[in-house]
Write a structure and sequence with these properties.
Elements lengths: L1 H11 L23 H14 L2 H5 L1 H12 L1 H10 L1 H5 L5 H13 L3 E5 L15 H20 L10 E4 L7 H14 L7 H10 L10 H23 L3 E4 L7 H15 L9 E6 L5 H15 L3 E6 L4 H11 L9 H22 L3 E6 L3 H14 L7 E6 L4 H9 L4 E6 L3 H14 L1 H5 L2 H15 L9
Length: 462
């Protein structure tokens, strides 16, 4: 095993291949793989989602349409539009059909359960809600594995995990507050939490009351059971980042899972953390975490995103009179993303399969940077670096990457209309800039539809 890792590391540092660099063209030429109906729906839905009033008042408009049109007609309209564009389906059969279509396009599934506890929502009482969510996550692990056609221990089965489905936001706020006051206190070290996960022994933390300690122990148990099941089923868990007032707690819990499940002997990384480039301290944290993983001999998995909570982060900072944690503008965020991307690609180059990276971006420049640097560093297309975009968005980039042989994942939520539509509206509100910035994709869709209607570009088989 050690010889195999050494060979992989040496191969990853083999340097650039011979010949000239040939950049990918994100010009919509790969749209020939999609049907005219799919392109028309995508254009309509993306234009609607770029309309600010629809996104801002989405939940109210949904309720109004149900009262005016009735649940059946309102649901049919949503299924034919937003739900059909962004959701894999409700039943296992519908999800499987969606994934088979993606695989036919050279794309892979990154399954997401649309469950979370909103920070401003009424706190849940008791553990039953979180235990139900645990069952849903376990089913998602099984579904994720069953959707991948390859057998054995292939590491290309991934799913998203949202910690606030298994642990309350109130607890995460308490843990965050303590970590900011106490720094790297041994009372809340990843090693101590990992030991509590493994042993199941009751963990007592001094600043939590009896009920909170009980909930912490139950939350650790839930996280541990999901990771254990995922590792047994060869599914890698990509943990979502959320708001800065709970992110330190999420990172602590991910670090505890990493201590247990990201050792090389486990074949990791099985648990990845998400890093948001729109926060000012992200490059510093990513540098520190990558070095800590190397120092402790752990594998390290990263999903790199720009970030989705810009407006709320700035609003909270204003209300609390605290420093704004976000980058000053989009250009600064792009520079931060570029620096973090370069950092991780160099780590992958030097440490081979010990370090994994998902370039989760809809930005063409970032994807160009990643593909060019992979070529220069000799990182294989289907190796420890992959790409990620949302289902129903950025298909001109996803399809071009997939057809070129890169590992590309589409984040696919699934579930009933009642479960998923509120989730989609929240995601749309968080991703306003992405939706409003999808003008180029809309233009490419419009051009492709126009060519087909004028008979200038015959549709290739789906």
């Amino acid at each position: 095993m050690m010889l195999l890792r050494t060979c992989r590391a040496l191969c990853s540092r083999a340097g650039p291949p011979s010949g000239d660099w040939q950049p990918l063209h994100f010009d919509g030429s790969a749209f020939h793989l999609k049907s005219t109906a799919e392109l028309a729906r995508a254009l309509l839905v993306l234009r609607l989602c770029a309309w600010p009033p629809l996104v801002t008042h989405g939940l109210a408009l949904q309720a109004w349409s149900q009262r005016l049109l009735g649940s059946r007609l309102s649901g049919a309209i949503l299924r034919a539009s937003m739900y059909g564009q962004f959701v894999a389906g409700e039943t296992t059969e519908e999800v499987r059909t969606c994934v088979q279509q993606l695989q036919g396009l050279g794309l892979r599934p990154l399954v997401a359960v649309p469950i979370e506890e909103e920070p401003d929502s009424t706190p849940k009482t008791g553990e039953s809600w979180y235990e139900d969510n645990l069952s849903a996550m376990m089913r998602c692990v099984d579904l994720s594995r069953s959707l991948v056609e390859t057998s054995g221990t292939a590491g290309n089965s991934l799913m998203q995990l949202r910690v606030t489905a298994l642990a309350s936001t109130r607890l995460c706020k308490e843990l965050t507050s303590w970590t900011r006051r106490s720094g790297s206190s041994s009372e809340l070290s990843p090693e101590r939490l990992a030991e509590a996960m493994d042993s199941g022994q009751n963990l007592q933390v001094s600043f939590l009351n009896a009920e909170q300690n009980w909930h912490l122990q139950a939350s650790l148990s839930r996280l541990h059971r999901v990771a254990q099941h995922a590792q047994a089923r060869h599914v890698r868990l990509l943990v979502d980042a959320e708001y800065t007032f709970i992110n330190p707690a999420l990172s602590l819990l991910v670090a505890a899972l990493a201590v247990r499940w990201n050792s090389p002997r486990e074949g990791g990384p099985w648990v990845w953390n998400t890093y948001q480039a729109y926060l000012q301290d992200t490059h510093e944290r990513l540098t520190r975490d990558a070095e800590d993983a190397h120092r402790t001999g752990l594998t390290f998995g990263v999903k790199l995103v720009r970030g989705a909570y810009l407006e709320k982060e700035r609003m909270v900072a204003r209300l609390q009179g605290t420093k704004d944690p976000t980058q000053p503008d989009y250009e600064a965020t792009s520079r931060s993303y570029s620096r973090c991307l370069e950092l991780m690609l160099n780590h992958v180059n030097h440490r081979g399969s010990m370090y994994h990276l998902m370039v989760a971006s809809h930005n063409e420049e970032s994807v160009h940077q990643a593909t060019k640097r992979m070529w220069e560093l000799g990182i294989p297309l289907d190796g420890p670096v992959c790409f990620g975009q949302l289902l129903g968005m950025c298909d001109h980039v996803s399809l071009a990457l997939g057809q070129a042989g890169y590992a590309v994942y589409k984040s696919i939520p699934y579930g009933s209309l009642e479960e998923v539509i509120p989730y989609l509206i929240r995601r749309a509100q968080e991703n306003r800039s992405v939706l409003q910035g999808a003008r180029r994709e809309q233009s490419l869709l419009s051009q492709e539809l126009q060519r087909r209607l004028l008979g200038q570009s015959p549709r290739a088989p789906y």
